[in-house]
Amino acid sequence: MILNSMHHLTRTQQFTRSSLDQLFALASKLEKEPDNSLKGKILAALFFEPSTRTRLSFSSAMLRLGGSVITMESGQASSQAKGETLEDSIRVVSNYCDAIVMRHPEEGAADRAAKVSKIPIINAGDGTGQHPTQALLDLYTIQRELGRTDGINIAIVGNLKYYRAARSLSYLLGKFNDIHLTLVSAPELRIRDDIKAYLRKHKVTFEETDNMQAAMKTADVIYQTRMQKEWMSPEEFKKNAGTYIITRKLADSMKKGAIIIHPLPRIGEITDDVDTSPHAVYFKQVRYGLLVRMALLKTILTKWK
Ligand code: CP
């Protein structure tokens, strides 16, 4: 079985290598074969934080599999504005649907929701905690574009202290062989110690550096990130905004076959002229994300084994 017995997906540590292989095989199958297996099922999208890709791709994935989607807005449009707790909202909404995909600004919110929910909770980002489905689509992009998930040199660039998707991906990479991570950031934005301990335990070699130019010449994958004003202190943002910009000249210095990925949105950290580079796959990544989310919904809602 791909996920734990309750079928909640709150963190990437829940996956095994074999369950990732199964999920990705299903994603590739769904690209080729129409599938209506979620007809009659309802997904609730609860987004307490802004989103374009995650929210719309989950909705699209559900509709493409024959299912339906209901949504709850944060702010004045829901009873959150009257002071309803997250737990009570989940207890109520779980009567209206078969699964809930939720984004929330607080780390640990998905686990809190899972504790009280009688239906599956899918974490679509919980503060600076995790963004598991983004990491799944990042890894699926690597598999599709490089043809492998072992023996890879990956450079993650920029905002490593707060980037939940990079945290989730690091946990997934611990399940593969011969992975080397180059963690490129300013000293104050280094990845947190819990991830470093995990990488050491799972024999993922890593180095920390502030030299993006050097990393770009040797990496198989450049994982660029956005400086996130919403999580960084004003001092951190002021000091780091505008650093680590991938230009066309830098992209041209990459190895043949190496790729640039980015969860998006970008706010200038990859210049527009990189979009036509053979290394740029961040818009293809969006399509892979739809396939992975289709595979995940089908798995969770039909208990696929
Ligand atoms: N990558 C990502 O999570 O994008 P959104 O914030 O638009 O969902």
Descriptive account of the structure:
- There is one protein chain.
- The chain is built from eleven helices and nine strands.
- The protein has 305 residues and is α/β, with parallel strands linked by helices.
- The strands form two sheets. A five-stranded parallel sheet has the order 7-6-5-8-9, sandwiched between helices. It has a four-stranded parallel sheet with strand order 2-1-3-4, sandwiched between helices.
- Helix 7 links the parallel strand 6 (179-184) and strand 7 (205-209).
- It is globular, with a radius of gyration of 19 Å.
- 45% of the residues are buried.
- The model has no long low-confidence stretch (mean pLDDT 94).
- Phosphoric acid mono(formamide)ester binds at residues 51-54, 134, 263-264.
- The site of phosphoric acid mono(formamide)ester has 7 residues, from helix 2.
